[in-house]
Design brief:
13 helices, Aspartate Aminotransferase, domain 2, 17 strands, eight-stranded mixed β-sheet, 429 residues, 2 domains, four-stranded mixed β-sheet, Aspartate Aminotransferase, domain 1, alpha/beta
């Protein structure tokens, strides 16, 4: 695999950006390589600056559920750009995208668009505190909710504990308002509410934790959280930045049938352009400025080009049978690889839900907590390199998930599975 141009671009980039990148996971640090500089994408494929072609399972970390450069999204974006790229004022497109979302997700009445998932979650946390008049929030170890100070917190040393900052530059006062619990542990949740009953504004969780492995929870855990929050006057907050519109049009909320008080979205609702949103019932959203005292703003919120892309993409996603076909094709890919791994006796499994999959080098148990993930990522590092050499692109981290798009046809997935199996045999040998 040629990397001459990417290596040269990376050396230049290191002069301009910390680590040569504008987001740390792009650095290829965990796979001991040089980042590939991507030149273009079309359908299920991307090409780097050295003209290497790859079947892409990163999809910009999930939002490109229709694939790269989808004709409907492309034409809608070009049409919107013809009228201007930004106004800092309301547009018809905001109404259209909001209607698409709200009419098919009846558990929320109103929403507010932002420019990223991080911004959406940060703003919704403020809303939860403003609505309840409480300060503390509960999050779970292994769930990622963006890089705002209150949420860049990892677990401490006890079952119920104030967290520790997972980044320099975060004051202890911020961390002390965040309680971090283990996933899939009802006892910890009950103990936490017993100790901090009237202080907890909300419990935030990725209902499908997919930023630190794919940590599918036991059936009933989300229902349990719903019951505990209701009993204690706290809000249940589903962070669906990844799972929203990915596993179903109504996300994990629809998939599991558990209704949160607040939900956040991102990625997919902008068709690949920067976007986020948070929503709730009207009595909660009434707290948001200018209606209420909770302030949140954004010059580029509801950007018309992002709204246009989102309208085009969500229109496609709302068509009958879309998600059923996504799941079918994902299993066409993962089942073939898993069957081969099992026949060969490899300790390996692709864990799936909807059109999301995660590479696990442990097939002995269902991994539901981050602490159960083997920290030795040597296997993934070798597999990542072997896949690149065979024209298959994954995100460069063994903790991240892969995504199947509508552009991954049966034929493309058959080819990808064959290449994947060849790469797996090569590293296992």
């Amino acid at each position: 695999m040629k990397q001459t141009v990417s290596k040269a671009l990376y050396e230049t980039a290191k002069k301009y950006f910390p680590g040569g990148v504008n987001s740390p996971v792009r650095a290829f640090k965990s796979v001991d390589g040089t980042p590939l500089f991507i030149k273009k994408g079309n359908g299920a494929y991307i090409w780097d600056e050295d003209d290497n072609e790859f079947i892409d399972f990163c999809g910009s970390w999930g939002p490109l559920i229709l694939g790269h450069n989808h004709p409907a999204v492309y034409s809608k974006v070009v049409e919107a750009l013809g009228n201007g790229s930004s106004f800092g004022a309301p547009t018809r497109l905001e109404n259209e995208l909001a209607e698409l979302i709200l009419t098919r997700n009846s558990f929320i009445d109103k929403l507010r668009f932002t420019s990223s998932g991080t911004e959406a979650v940060m703003s919704a946390i403020r809303l939860a505190r403003g609505y309840t008049g409480r300060n503390k929030i509960v999050k779970f170890e292994g769930c990622y909710h963006g890089h705002s100070d209150a949420l860049l917190v990892k677990a401490g040393s006890g079952l119920v504990t104030f967290g520790n900052s997972s980044s320099a530059g975060i004051p202890e006062a911020f961390v002390n308002e965040t309680l971090v619990l283990p996933l899939n542990n009802k006892e910890a949740v009950e103990q936490c509410f017993a100790e901090y009953k009237d202080q907890i504004a909300c419990v935030i969780i990725e209902p499908i934790p997919a930023n630190n492995g794919l940590l599918l929870q036991e059936e009933g855990f989300l229902t349990f959280l719903r019951e505990v929050c209701t009993a204690n006057g706290a809000l249940l907050f589903f962070d669906e930045v990844i799972s929203g519109f990915r596993v179903a049009f109504g996300g994990a909320t629809e998939h599991y049938g558990v209704i949160p008080d607040i939900v956040s979205y991102g990625k997919i609702i902008g068709g690949g352009l920067p976007v986020g949103a948070y929503g709730a019932k009207k009595e909660i959203m009434a707290q948001i400025s200018p209606d209420g005292p909770v302030y949140q703003a954004g010059t580029l919120s509801g950007n018309p080009v992002a709204m246009a892309a989102g309208i085009a993409q969500l229109t496609e996603l709302s068509k009958p049978g879309f998600y059923e076909d996504q799941k079918r094709r994902t299993h066409l890919f993962t089942d073939k690889i898993n069957a081969h791994a099992k026949a060969k006796g490899y300790h390996f499994e692709l864990v799936t839900i909807g059109s999301i999959y995660w590479i696990s080098f442990d097939d002995s148990k269902r991994i539901r907590k981050s602490e159960d993930i083997n920290p030795d990522m040597t296997g993934f590092k070798h597999l990542h390199r072997a896949l690149l050499e065979r024209g298959v692109y994954l995100g460069p981290s063994g903790y991240e998930v892969g995504f199947v798009s509508a552009a991954h046809t049966d034929e493309i997935l058959e080819v990808a599975a064959t290449r994947f199996i060849d790469a797996l045999d090569a590293i296992m040998s």
